[in-house]
Amino acid sequence: MPTGGATITATVVGSTAAGQPLLQTSFGLVTIPGAQGLPVGTGVTLGLSPSALGNAEATARAALGLPPGNASGTAAAGGQPASLGRAWPALNEAFVQLSQTNPALAQTLLQTAIPQPGPQLAGALLFFMAALRGGDVRSWMGDQTARALGGRDGRSPLLSRLSDDMGQMTRTGTDAAGNEWRGFYIPLFDGRDLQQIRLFMRDPTEEGDGNAEGGSGHRFLIDLDLSKLGALQLDGLARTERLDLIVRTHRALPRDIKAEIVRLFEETAERVGLKGQVSFQATPHFPPLPFVEHNEIIEVHSEIEA
To answer: How much is the CA Rg of the chain, to the nearest whole Å?
Structure first.
């Protein structure tokens, strides 16, 4: 423990997919790299230097989608709600509440309802998108979790906010007409923080995305921020029997990570009978997303040659 710094108490409320303990603190959720095997409910004292203490508070506010110095607000400057494409404050609040009142339910929510990187990611994403289409927060979180958040009558302002947020996320995915982009905001626990995946999809345009050989194609764009890799975009074009993908980052990926991505892509493509290729692009500026802050639709220029 560092000397001359502050200390905070924390409680183990679960574990990450990598087995690292997940701790609830007054600043939010933290993990301890390298630590293993701490039972749920274990009390831990953490030592923080003064600079780390300030950084922890700033990090917690950012993770909750709060502006600096606004501990209670759920709105960004100008009174507009924080973009659900970047953070889901109500979900963070729900997880903190469950961690304090029912750690076992908090762990269940993390493991069964919130997608995490790994073999089950695709299934978890589809499950959440199905829940969005149904518009029912209970069908996603489960009745027991919803009751724990909703009090005796099963209703609470927090549960209402979660339901309203899901309704807003549903509209971004269903209000598009014709060949416009549809957007889905999906929570992701990356082993350290709760993030939001921004998934955009578009059906073939009248002019056609693709070529004569592959036919018209479906565009998809996945935009997210990972604790270890930073900002990441997966820009894809799916055509008949073919899938092409660009992996876009701000900094060049290490060679071993590229090789692993190529291996997974090729194995998956072969298994489902698709041809195609994956390429990598390191650029300081990503192309703009189809949706900006207030759901204005703008064009994303494909860099995949048909």
So the answer is: 21
| Architecture of the domain spanning 203-306 | 2-Layer Sandwich (3.30)
Structure-token pair, residue 102: 């029912």
Domain 1-63, CATH class in plain words: mainly beta
The sheet carrying 218-226 orders its strands as 182-189, 194-202, 218-226, 230-239, 242-249, 275-282
Look at the alpha carbons of 131, 135, 137, 139 in this order and tell me if their dihedral is positive or negative.
Answer: negative
Backbone angles phi, psi at 186, to 5 degrees: -125, 130
Query: Domain residue spans in the chain?
Result: 1-63, 84-175, 203-306
What predicted TM-score, i.e. pTM, was given to this entire model?
Answer: 0.61
Residue 301 burial (C-beta neighbours within 10 Å; 0-12, 13-18, 19+): exposed
Residues 6+ apart with CB under 8 A from 123: none
**pLDDT digits (tens), the chain, 306 positions:** 444 455 667 777 666 656 667 776 655 566 666 667 777 777 777 765 444 444 544 444 444 444 444 333 333 333 333 467 777 888 888 888 888 888 888 888 888 888 887 767 777 888 888 888 777 788 888 888 888 887 666 678 888 888 888 888 877 665 555 567 888 888 988 777 788 888 888 887 655 554 434 456 888 899 988 777 888 999 999 888 899 999 999 999 999 999 999 998 898 888 888 899 999 999 999 988 876 433 333 333 334 433
3-state secondary structure 198-266: EEEEECCCCCCCEECCCEECEEEEEEEEECCCEEEEEEEEEECCEEEEEEEECCCCCHHHHHHHHHHHH
